[in-house]
Structures are given as C-alpha cells and as structure tokens.
Amino acid sequence: MASVIKQDELIRGDASPQPVAFNVEDVQARARNYLEDARRQADEILANARLEAASLLTETKAKALAAANQEFEKRVQDSAQKLSDTRCKTAIAACEAAVSGVAESTTQWLATWRNQTVALAARIAEKIVRREMQDNDELLRVWLEEALVAMRDSRDLRLSVHPDDFAVAGRFLQQLAKSVPQAIDVEILPDPQVEQGGCIVLSNNGRIDQQLLVQLDRLVEQLTQ
C-alpha cells in the first residue's frame, strides 16, 4: 500500500484548512522517467556527435586526400612538362644541328661540284682554243687589242711575244694603229718564255698577261670565288 503524507495547509480567509496529499512513488517514477529521458537524449546527442565527428573526419580526410592528389598531379604534370620541354628543346636543337649540317654539307658539295665543273670547263676550253690557235692567228690580234685598250693611258708600252709570233705581232700592231693610236709606238720583244699565241703587254704602270693558261686561271678564279 502506498504511503501517504498529509499536511495541513491553512488557507487565509474564512475557508477551513484542507489537507494536500503527495504520492512518493509517483514522484520517484517521474524522476526516473525524466532521468532516463535525459540519459537517452544525452546518448542520442553523443551518438549524433560521434556520427558528425566521423563524417567530418571522413570529409576532412577526403578533402586532404583530394588536395594531396591534386598537388601530386600538379607536380607530376609540372615535372612532365619540364621533361617534355627539355626533350623538345633537345630534339629541336638536334634537328637544327642536323639541318645545319646538311646545309653545310650541301654548300660544301655544291662548292666542290662548282669548282670541279669550272676546272673541267677550263680544260675543255683550253683544248678548243688551242685547236683554234693552230689554224689562225686571230686570237693573238684580239688579245693584243684588248691589252692595248686596257692600257691606253700608259706610255712606253712593250710587247713580249713568242719568237715565232714576232712577225705576226708586228703586222697586227700596224693594223691596230688605226683604232688604237699608241699601238704605233709599242716596242716588240721576242721572248721564248711567252706561250705561243699569247702575249704580255708591259708599261711603267704594270703588265697585262694575255697568255692562254693565265687567262683561263683568271677566269677560273673569278668563277670559283
């Protein structure tokens, strides 16, 4: 049987005293229920806090991992880019060196080919001209006239020719005197060292060598420069 505590409470005024009853077991039950509710709410709050903490930790780890992966990928890309740039620069330098080498080789080959071609042409020209010189003396006249015209402002001209061309050179000088006045005063000197068919004109200002081989050498030098 539940215990009952009676307490007289005086009510002011004309009212007579009324007894008020308190059920101790009911109060204890309510207290236990309140305590259990508080514990349950605390457990729920703690559980939710743990879940939120775990979720936050997971999210933080994920973000940190993503940031680390991003930084790693960036470093890898930067390293790859640098390596690629280095390789590209190396490849470009190698290509430029190869192109330069090919161009240099081509230039050298062209120069060699040109020199050989000019030398061959000079030998062919020599043979052709010598055959022409055997048939007539016209080339001697042409070369003599060219030299006299080139030295028209010079005085005391002397003409050196091969002894076999002495008479022919004298006749040519007489013919040239009509167009080249200083030809009449040219002194003719026979010289066995002078190539037959050619001549050398000398003056106080210098000399012009009109021998075949000398002229061909001059021509080859001009063409191979």
From TrEMBL:
<dbReference type="GO" id="GO:0015031">
    <property type="term" value="P:protein transport"/>
</dbReference>
<feature type="coiled-coil region">
    <location>
        <begin position="24"/>
        <end position="82"/>
    </location>
</feature>
<keyword id="KW-1006">Bacterial flagellum protein export</keyword>
<keyword id="KW-0282">Flagellum</keyword>
<dbReference type="GO" id="GO:0005829">
    <property type="term" value="C:cytosol"/>
</dbReference>
<keyword id="KW-0653">Protein transport</keyword>
<feature type="domain" description="Flagellar assembly protein FliH/Type III secretion system HrpE">
    <location>
        <begin position="93"/>
        <end position="218"/>
    </location>
</feature>
<keyword id="KW-0966">Cell projection</keyword>
<dbReference type="InterPro" id="IPR018035">
    <property type="entry name" value="Flagellar_FliH/T3SS_HrpE"/>
</dbReference>
<keyword id="KW-0969">Cilium</keyword>
<dbReference type="InterPro" id="IPR051472">
    <property type="entry name" value="T3SS_Stator/FliH"/>
</dbReference>
<dbReference type="GO" id="GO:0044781">
    <property type="term" value="P:bacterial-type flagellum organization"/>
</dbReference>
<keyword id="KW-0813">Transport</keyword>
<keyword id="KW-1005">Bacterial flagellum biogenesis</keyword>
<protein>
    <recommendedName>
        <fullName>Flagellar assembly protein FliH</fullName>
    </recommendedName>
</protein>
<dbReference type="Pfam" id="PF02108">
    <property type="entry name" value="FliH"/>
</dbReference>
<keyword id="KW-0175">Coiled coil</keyword>
<comment type="function">
    <text>Needed for flagellar regrowth and assembly.</text>
</comment>
<comment type="similarity">
    <text>Belongs to the FliH family.</text>
</comment>
